[in-house]
Write a structure and sequence with these properties.
seven-stranded mixed beta sheet; alpha/beta
């Protein structure tokens, strides 16, 4: 009989670690719910069986966290009645889950002792549909083939070319190949015909440290520093090199403005999407850049149509108020908060004193607003070219079945034989580009808005086709779109235009200085450095502890959550050890202090988005980076607080034009 406590933990694991991260294959979720993970691991590891950690098996091999297995199983696209080959039986947990999804499972284990143990365990558990043998991984089990699907487990080396020959036509081979330290790349190969195979990169998955080993591994890696006192000397050197402040509202920004100089693009980050101090300091810097340096526009990690509502408000636009309010969908608190509202109100007041042509604009860089952008394109075409508007409705109609669930479009395009909407949305963008001369003369600003929305629809359609498994392609496409949008805005406003960008650290910091580069990922900051050189100035943020506004799962309610103290050995812990409430550290101009050399070592850095999972802090929120190569400036806030989300009560009495609305 299933132990009730383990059953509850298993239910929580499936809900919080797997379903909340986008794996929504009901058969996979049900299979994971039915298999007792604790029965397959050593007794010493059973208490951690349902934590988001890897588990160390008796032979030293790692059993990755269940989320990694779940993503791989979803990628197999298994249907009832199919025949599956697994390479890398291990403790047998993955085999048992596969047995719930397929009619027959053959599994090959290269280690003789593990194969014997797995066979014995399968017999005790009555898993008669599982057949295990000891054999070479790349040899597979050819005489029992062909197979509908083959899964190569993480940590097992095998030849894709050898194994794919054992697939039947239409069969899928999914392999987890090493991509970087603690990261595997999920690749799927499909047999299209007897002689033709198609492969695609699906995801880069982080393998969490084994239960109980993360702290020991970190301590071992940093042990030499700690023993020699280098950590303390580094923290003291950082304190000497930086500009300390007690209160961020009173921090002197003039030295920072001098360092920024004539930079054309200033990218200002944040270590979380829900920390008040990051928003407030970013607002202070931006106001100074607008007032004293004449920056032309602010571009944020937000959706273009929502930011267009803000732009209409702050530039006193003549268009009637839009039918929707800005940032009303999840995660609304990211931009719909008191801190952003204060900046928006200030910018409207500042612009009121400027000639219309000199007013500072507010734009969005992101591409999630697929259907909002379609509506904006159609509204524009209805005004200037009704015939083309009818054509646009026909083409965009391809996407209409998934208006309430864009991720559903991604799943549909994974189905063999389903026609994607790519050709239709790209053709629509081409129509607008072709009509640039005639439409642009009608109204440059309105045409820019329509063209950007059409470009967004084309990129978003592709993004949703690639995002289902969280692959590097979807990340690169998103940041590439943000950079393309930024360049479009700069070109539109002329060669002397200057921009302030607000986005997460993970977007603005140079990806070449982080483990992202090892996975083949680039970001907005990397593209800006390549395009603008020293004319791009990047500012990152960090904090040690406090509170943050975030959700536990995508689509969940915002909570004010306690932010755990930063991990030992991390960049954040170095700055915390400086013992100051706040600090501005110029990375481009680091003092020639030998004690600062340790700052150029690769260390852990924390990143919290709209989701925060404190129970899996290390696996979910830390990555490796070299801080001085990532940013030109780093701003430290030792203890921080959550943003104040705007609710209906706090917005009562606002004018109809107010973009956040009631």
């Amino acid at each position: 009989m299933d132990h009730p406590d383990y059953a509850r933990r298993r239910q929580n694991m499936v809900r919080e670690q797997i379903a909340s991260r986008g794996v929504d294959d009901e058969r996979v979720l049900e299979a994971l719910q039915q298999v007792a993970r604790e029965a397959f691991v050593p007794e010493s590891a059973r208490e951690a069986a349902y934590e988001e950690v890897s588990l160390r098996l008796d032979d030293g091999r790692l059993l990755p966290q269940a989320h990694v297995l779940a993503v791989a199983l979803a990628a197999l696209e298994l249907r009832a009645g199919e025949k599956v080959l697994e390479i890398g039986t291990g403790c047998g947990y993955g085999s048992a889950v596969l047995a719930r999804l397929a009619a027959e499972v053959r599994t090959v284990e290269p280690d003789a002792r593990m194969a014997e143990r797995a066979a014995s365990l399968f017999a005790r558990l009555g898993l008669r549909e599982l057949h295990v043998r000891h054999g070479e991984a790349s040899a597979g089990w050819e005489e029992q083939g062909p197979y509908d699907a083959i899964l190569v487990q993480p940590g097992v080396e095998a030849s894709a070319q050898a194994l794919r020959a054992q697939l039947r036509v239409g069969g899928r081979l999914v392999m987890a190949q090493p991509a970087a330290a603690a990261v595997v790349e999920l690749v799927r190969t499909r047999r299209v015909s007897e002689l033709r195979f198609e492969s695609e990169d699906l995801a880069d998955l982080r393998i969490a440290p084994a239960a109980g080993e993360a702290a020991r591994d970190g301590a071992a890696r940093r042990g030499a520093d700690a023993a020699a006192g280098a950590q303390a000397r580094l923290a003291a050197a950082v304190g000497r090199a930086g500009q300390a402040f007690e209160d961020l509202d009173a921090a002197d920004l003039e030295p920072l403005l001098r360092r920024i100089g004539r930079a054309r693009v200033v990218l200002i980050g944040e270590a979380t999407h829900g920390t008040s101090e990051f928003y407030r300091m970013r607002q202070r810097i931006t106001r100074a850049l607008i007032e004293k340096r004449g920056f032309d526009f602010v571009a944020v990690e937000g959706d273009w149509p929502d930011c267009a509502r803000i732009d209409q408000y702050v530039r006193h636009g003549e268009e009637p108020a839009a039918r929707w309010k800005a940032f009303a969908r999840f995660p609304s608190w990211m931009w719909r908060n008191r801190e952003v509202a204060e900046f928006v109100d200030w910018l409207r007041g500042f612009n009121a004193l400027q000639r219309p042509a000199l007013r500072t604009a507010f734009h969005g860089l992101d591409l999630y607003s697929l259907y909002g952008s379609i509506e904006r394109v159609l509204d524009y075409l209805e005004r200037v070219d009704p015939a083309t508007a009818r054509l646009a409705r026909q083409r965009y109609g391809c996407l209409s079945p998934w208006e309430d669930d864009p991720a559903g479009y991604a799943r549909a395009t994974l189905t063999a034989g389903y026609r994607s909407c790519e050709a239709d949305v790209v053709a629509m963008l081409g129509e607008l580009l072709h009509a640039r001369a005639s439409y642009g003369g009608y109204d440059g600003e309105r045409f820019l808005d329509a063209l950007q929305n059409a470009r967004l629809v084309a990129n978003a359609e592709r993004y949703y086709r690639t995002m289902y498994y969280g692959s590097r392609e979807s990340w690169n496409l998103r940041d590439g779109h943000m950079f393309e949008t930024l360049r479009t805005l700069l070109d539109f406003r002329g060669p002397r235009s200057r921009a302030v960008v607000w986005a997460h650290n993970s977007h603005v910091g140079d990806s070449a200085a982080t483990e992202m580069a090892l996975r083949g990922e680039f970001n907005l900051g990397r593209l800006c450095r390549k395009a603008f050189g020293e004319q791009a100035y990047t500012i990152g943020f960090g904090t040690h502890a406090g509170q943050v506004a975030a959700a536990e799962s995508w689509g969940g309610d915002m909570q004010v959550m306690d932010l755990r103290p930063s991990l030992a050995g991390s960049h954040e812990r170095v700055f915390h050890d400086c013992g100051v409430p706040g600090l501005l550290l110029p990375m481009r101009e680091l003092a020639p202090d030998p004690d600062l050399a340790g700052l150029r070592e690769s260390r852990l850095q924390r990143a919290v988005g709209v989701l925060y999972r404190p129970r899996t802090e290390m696996a979910s929120h830390y990555f490796e980076s070299v801080l001085p190569e990532q940013y030109d400036e780093y701003i430290w806030i030792d203890r921080s607080h959550a943003v104040t989300a705007l609710d209906s009560l706090s917005l009562e009495g606002q004018p109809d034009t107010y973009p956040f609305g009631v």
